[in-house]
Design the sequence.
């Protein structure tokens, strides 16, 4: 082993900063999954009968489905009967009405994470809906938002207050039987966020949800639904962390977006779930289904993701471009260090005329990390003059990691144009030496080079998030290379 | 300022430098000339601390300290600058951002406060003017898509920004046409001063018409075989290296 590789290895062994455990009384469902558990969750949420039926239908479909194994990730078998499907901070009955009523310990947790839940969010201009394990703890800024008619609340509340909205859109983009994990989520999801932006409204602030898995042996199954009515605009941010635990934890979320005519949804994620230790012990299994429907003409959906966490990432935020002249975008930075495995990408399905999609994917692998870009561009017969531009770049750090690119292209008309560019590069010893010769410490040099590599994507993130993401990439790598 | 004594260096088990002794005082400009493969770049790299260059014998003292024990970034912070023969590109990282990070890292090492954006830009404008580096080049990614001449000017611009005590310029003239050479040389000359030592490595005498050295050394097969004044460079240009080589070999 060269001394260069040794020093890289040393620097790669960084600590997970969000790995604290919060000591709060939790209420659990017994581990295991059956119809009773589904009924239990539904009852806990005081859900209407139709929603319980919807869940049960999903559960029954799930029983018939097989866990997908086509992704380039390997992990031990998941025992679905050994997982808790419901965990909530106790005393849900007298749920907090305001921040003052929120358990101070919980607030301290958020403070550690640097979430501006208190007054600071005024400065940051962010309305936060924080989901702790399975329950949405508090939604800030709701009043200000409701003045312009924006609905932003936890899923459970939305079910009570706007059942017609939920009934109309739930499962409309990701049907219950879409895939194994989506079906599981549909059966047991316990909370999440709902956003509705009325016609012609530009949401006055960035909306934000923060997810955190705290309880041991629990899965997190949140559900997000965002509907942007005609001519509206919303930017939505999602952040995630989890404590360090030796056992793996399951996260299977579903996100559905609907953009009507002339509406725009910008969805940004910074995912920093616990990735496991350097030997691959522990970490979150992140199986997420995210899909947006550009329903109306000239609608636009942009996915931006920075994925630095999780032991396993299986995630393909996609767009169905149904409306004519609609636009789908996917900007991604995914980083796999140590034993992390990420199989991520997007699907762009062009149905409408003159639809456009852009895919920019940046994969960074270090340590023994494995990184796969998996993308599908499908242009249907009716999608005349459709356009797609795909660029996927891989950056390798060290000599034990891997980068893989699996693009699928399916074009069914002759008027469409597709471009695909791909590069693979390594952080070179010469680049590092050049930086160090100018006075930069090795880890700062790596962080600089990586951020340069990811810049095209990071610039798509809202400002505060971009800064956070940049730091995160830095810490997640602290000085690699060979 | 820099004292090299009996320096032996191996690369991949092969001895490249076979006993270099050199003494450069503050304010002096020394030139090292030599044919390809004589060990010129090896000397530059070993002084800057590149990995893979193993010192098997000898010592290097810089400002009274053992230079060879320092990490490359510490050497830089202590004022050692290497102008690269082949500067590498760093895509996506703007020149100005890169240099600000570097300058502030060095300032931190020296116990100085970081420069804020306004002071930094002011300084940058002034120094870029020295080598006529167009404003847009300071904003482009580091060396990415730069022409050969632009890269070399960028190196001198960086040197001007970082204000080193010891500047090592490795074949700064290679790949430059005569006009670009003059611009680069003028930039270097503007940075000469009583507190600064320079080691100019070159293959051709041409550069030394513009950067006039105090001392010229001839490096052949890992040894300094001749030392003289600027006229030695002219003599080499006229007679070629083989003459010197023949003269030293029995």
Sequence:
């Amino acid at each position: 082993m060269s001394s260069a590789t040794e020093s890289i290895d040393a620097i790669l062994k960084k600590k997970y900063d969000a790995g604290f455990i919060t000591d709060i009384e939790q209420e659990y469902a017994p581990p295991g999954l059956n119809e009773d558990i589904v009924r239990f969750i539904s009852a806990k949420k005081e859900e209407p009968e139709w929603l319980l039926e919807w869940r049960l239908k999903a559960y029954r479909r799930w029983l018939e489905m097989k866990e997908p194994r086509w992704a380039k990730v390997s992990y031990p078998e998941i025992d679905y009967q050994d997982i808790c499907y419901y965990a909530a901070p106790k005393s849900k009955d007298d749920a907090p009405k305001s921040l003052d009523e929120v358990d101070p310990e919980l607030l301290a947790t958020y403070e550690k994470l640097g979430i501006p839940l208190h007054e600071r969010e005024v400065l940051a201009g962010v309305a936060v809906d924080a989901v702790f394990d399975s329950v949405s703890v508090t939604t800030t800024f709701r009043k200000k938002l409701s003045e312009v008619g924006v609905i932003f609340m936890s899923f459970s509340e939305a079910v009570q207050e706007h059942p017609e909205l939920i009934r109309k859109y739930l499962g409309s983009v990701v049907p219950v039987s879409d895939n194994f994990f989506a079906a599981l989520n549909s059966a047991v999801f316990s909370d999440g966020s709902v956003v509705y932006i009325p016609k012609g409204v530009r949401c006055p602030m960035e909306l934000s949800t923060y997810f955190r898995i705290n309880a041991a042996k629990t899965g997190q199954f949140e559900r997000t639904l965002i509907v942007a009515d005609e001519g509206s605009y919303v930017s939505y941010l999602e952040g995630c962390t989890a404590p360090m635990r030796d056992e793996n934890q399951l996260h299977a979320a579903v996100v559905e977006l609907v953009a009507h005519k002339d509406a725009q949804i910008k969805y940004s994620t910074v995912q920093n779930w616990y990735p496991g230790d350097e030997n691959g012990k522990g970490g979150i299994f992140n199986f997420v289904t995210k899909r947006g429907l550009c329903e109306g003409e000239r609608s636009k959906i942009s996915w931006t993701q920075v994925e630095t966490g999780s032991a396993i990432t299986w995630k393909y935020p996609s767009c169905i471009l149904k409306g004519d002249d609609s636009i789908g975008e996917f900007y991604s930075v995914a980083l796999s260090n140590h034993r992390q495995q990420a199989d991520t990408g997007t699907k762009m399905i062009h149905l409408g005329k003159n639809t456009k999609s852009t895919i920019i994917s940046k994969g960074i692998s270090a340590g023994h990390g494995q990184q796969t870009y998996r993308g599908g561009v499908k242009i249907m017969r009716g999608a005349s003059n459709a356009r797609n531009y795909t660029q996927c770049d891989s950056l390798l750090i060290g000599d034990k990691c891997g980068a893989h690119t699996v693009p699928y292209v399916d074009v069914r008309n002759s008027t469409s144009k597709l471009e695909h560019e791909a590069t693979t590069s390594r952080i070179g010893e010469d680049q590092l030496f050049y930086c160090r010769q100018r006075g930069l410490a090795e880890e700062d040099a790596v962080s600089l080079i990586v951020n340069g590599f990811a810049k095209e994507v990071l610039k798509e993130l809202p400002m505060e998030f971009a800064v956070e993401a940049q730091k995160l990439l830095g810490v997640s790598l602290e000085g690699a290379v060979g | 300022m820099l004292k090299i004594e009996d320096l032996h260096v191996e690369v991949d088990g092969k001895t490249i430098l076979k006993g270099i002794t050199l003494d450069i005082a503050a304010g002096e400009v020394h030139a090292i000339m030599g044919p390809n493969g004589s060990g010129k770049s090896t000397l530059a790299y070993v002084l800057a601390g590149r990995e893979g260059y193993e010192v098997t014998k000898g010592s290097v003292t810089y400002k009274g300290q053992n230079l060879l024990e320092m990490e490359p970034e510490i050497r830089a912070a202590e004022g050692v600058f290497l102008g690269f023969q082949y500067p590498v590109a760093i895509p996506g990282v703007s020149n100005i951002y890169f240099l600000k990070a570097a300058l502030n890292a060095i300032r931190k090492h020296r116990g100085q406060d970081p420069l804020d954006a306004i002071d930094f830009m002011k300084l940058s404008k002034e120094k870029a003017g020295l080598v006529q580096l167009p404003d847009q080049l300071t904003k482009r990614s580091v060396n990415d898509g730069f022409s050969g001449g632009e890269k070399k000017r960028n190196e001198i611009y960086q040197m001007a920004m970082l204000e080193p005590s010891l500047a090592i310029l490795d074949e700064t003239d290679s790949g430059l046409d005569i006009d670009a050479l003059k611009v680069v040389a003028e930039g270097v000359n503007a940075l000469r001063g009583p507190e600064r030592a320079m080691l100019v490595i070159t293959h051709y005498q041409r550069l030394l018409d513009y950067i006039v050295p105090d001392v010229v050394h001839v490096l052949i097969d890992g040894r300094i075989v001749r030392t003289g004044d600027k006229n030695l460079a002219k003599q080499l240009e006229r007679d070629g290296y083989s003459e010197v080589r023949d003269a030293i070999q029995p």
